[in-house]
Amino acid sequence: MHIVALGWIFVVVLMSLAEATAPNGTVLGAVFTLLLYGVLPVSIIVYVMNTPHRRRARQRRDAEDAALAAKAPDDEGQL
């Protein structure tokens, strides 16, 4: 999945370069091309595609917290 995102960023960088060096192009247009065609969509897609990983990490962290709470000493300091 990351290689597709990297490939898309490469394409968008080339589009931005073409925009900046075109006779009617501007650097501002190239920056907006880079941001609106590249950075914003790729960041959204990577965030959505990493949702299962974040969910598993949260569940693992909750399970570890529950295990630590079960081992916590009682009021007298005994295990």
Task: Give the arrangement of secondary structure elements.
Elements: H1 2-21, H2 27-49, H3 51-71
Helix pairs in contact: 1-2
Notes on the structure:
- The chain has 79 residues and is mainly alpha-helical.
- It has one domain.
- 81% of the residues lie in helices and 0% in strands.
- The protein has 3 helices and no strands.
- It has helices spanning 2-21, 27-49, 51-71.
Question: Which regions contain 5 or more consecutive residues with pLDDT less than 50?
Answer: none
Q: Write down the overall mean pLDDT.
A: 89
Tell me the domain tally.
1
Overall number of strands? 0
User: In whole angstroms, how far apart are the ends?
Assistant: 46 Å
Query: Which shape, going by the Cα principal axes?
Result: rod-shaped
What share of residues are in beta strands?
under 5%
Main sheet summary: none
Number of helices: 3
Q: Which value, in Å, is the CA radius of gyration? A: 23 Å
SS class: mainly alpha
Give the helix level as a range of percent. Answer: over 70%
Encode the helix/strand succession as letters: HHH
Write a brief caption for the model:
This protein is an all-alpha fold. The protein is 81% helix and 0% strand.
